[in-house]
Amino acid sequence: MSAFRVIVQRDLTMAFRRVGDLCMPLIFFVIVCTLFPLAIGQDKDLLRAVGPGAIWVAALLATLLSLNTLFREDFDDGTLEQLALSRHPLTALLLAKTLAHWLIAELPLVLSAPLLALGFDLPAAGLQALLLTLLIGTPTLSLLGAIGAALTAGLRRATGLLAILLLPLTVPVLIFGARSVGLASSGQSIAGPLFLLGGITTLALTLAPFATAAAARVSLD
Predict the structure, then answer these.
(1) Average of pLDDT values for 151-161?
(2) Opening angle at CA 128, ends 95 and 167, nearest 5
(3) What percentage of the chain exceeds 70 in pLDDT?
(4) Which residues, 6+ apart, have CB-to-CB distance to 120 below 8 Å?
(5) Does the pTM exceed 0.90?
(6) Of residues 129, 131, 86, 90, the one with CA closest to residue 109
(7) Does 15 have pLDDT greater than 80?
């Protein structure tokens, strides 16, 4: 746990030293969520219908924007190799880096989403469901993205390949996340898709760290 905490603190400290890189995913998320209502117009029914999906897609794209360098610098300066040779489990160390990524890149999106969702005329129940589903679902985006980032750590231009690897895996998260918000906005129960979303996150938290460690070893070899 001491090594886990040190890795998280190190990545957070390095991120706050580069404010531009830190703010880029959030700025992208804000721009996309702002442009959608402007493009759609004043049709409130249409805004409520497309809002949950648009916000979730924007969150996914912002995640892709931040994942490209998750392990790149550590690979280039030899830190990733030292982590692999450490006496501590590589699975736990890379999970710490994934947690730091979620805190840096995803948590600001989650906190700003309800405010941006006002542009889609979502009711209070929909805003609450949006915040809840993003809190549950965005860790999965980081966990799955870490696998792709570890596989492509040694590639210079891996954004396109990373998108190809990640997008098919995130489709269930997008579906259940947007569906939950849509049901809540119409006054229906969101228990079904919310439990499925939680199950996906639990499965990702259980399996993804091992896959990330294996992918990192492949990149190092």
Answers:
(1) 70
(2) 45
(3) 95
(4) 36, 37, 47, 48, 50, 51, 52, 54, 55
(5) no
(6) 131
(7) no
Q: What integer is the mean pLDDT of 10-36?
A: 82
Report, as an integer, the average pLDDT of 67-96: 80
Question: Do the beta carbons of residue 67 and residue 162 sit within 8 Å?
Answer: yes
Over the stretch 111-148, which tens digit does the pLDDT of each residue have? Answer: 998 888 888 888 888 889 999 999 999 999 989 988 88
| Residue in 122, 132, 147 with CA at minimum distance from that of residue 208 | 147
For the chain, the three-class secondary structure string (H helix, E strand, C coil) is CHHHHHHHHHHHHHHHCCHHHHHHHHHHHHHHHHHHHHHHCCCHHHHHHHHHHHHHHHHHHHHHHHHCCCCHHHHHCCHHHHHHHCCCCHHHHHHHHHHHHHHHHHHHHHHHHHHHHHHHCCCHHHHHHHHHHHHHHHHHHHHHHHHHHHHCCCCCCCHHHHHHHHHHHHHHHHHHHHHHHHHHHCCCCCHHHHHHHHHHHHHHHHHHHHHHHHHHHHHHC
